[in-house]
């Protein structure tokens, strides 16, 4: 896996409820670059949701907002409680809500 960076955490220290993680050089999006029209790294998204949920001791989900496969320099993952995501076609596709 590529270089990861926690870009933002929201909430009070040690009580974060959401955040943003950027990861460069992920293999799946790199292989699919220019061949897809949506975010593709559901494996990384699942690991981030599970890891953040375990670390913060609350049920969180994760959506990939930007993807190397679509030309972004890094994949951008946002994690937060599922009910706080604003409904959009991409969020619905990734989380299966609405």
Description:
This protein has 98 residues and is of the alpha+beta class. The chain has one domain. It is 28% helix and 26% strand. It contains three helices and four strands, in the order ββααββα. It has helices at residues 27-31, 42-56, 89-95, and strands spanning 4-10, 18-23, 61-66, 75-80. Strands 1-2-4-3 form a four-stranded antiparallel beta sheet. The protein starts with a strand and ends with a helix.
Salient structural properties:
98 residues, alpha+beta, 26% strand, globular
Name the poorly predicted regions.
none
Note the run of SSEs as H and E. EEHHEEH
Structural class: alpha+beta
| Main β-sheet, spatial strand arrangement | 1-2-4-3
Task: Please state the overall shape, judged from the principal axes of the Cα atoms.
Answer: globular
> Percent range for helical residues?
25-40%
Rg is 13 Å
In total, the number of strands is 4
Total number of domains: 1
Q: What's the mean pLDDT score?
A: 84
Structure at a glance:
This protein is α+β, with helices and mostly antiparallel strands. The protein is about 30% helix and about 25% strand.
In terms of topology, how is this protein built?
Elements: E1 4-10, E2 18-23, H1 27-31, H2 42-56, E3 61-66, E4 75-80, H3 89-95
Antiparallel strand pairs: 1-2, 2-4, 3-4
């Amino acid at each position: 896996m590529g270089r990861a960076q926690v870009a933002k955490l929201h909430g009070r220290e040690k009580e974060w409820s959401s955040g943003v993680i950027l990861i460069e050089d992920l293999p799946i999006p790199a292989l699919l670059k220019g061949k897809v029209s949506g975010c593709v790294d559901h494996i990384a998204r699942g690991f981030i949701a599970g890891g953040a949920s375990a670390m913060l001791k609350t049920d969180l989900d994760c959506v990939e907002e930007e993807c190397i496969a679509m030309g972004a320099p890094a994949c951008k993952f946002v994690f937060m409680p599922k009910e706080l995501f604003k409904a959009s076609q991409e969020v619905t596709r990734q989380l299966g809500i609405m």
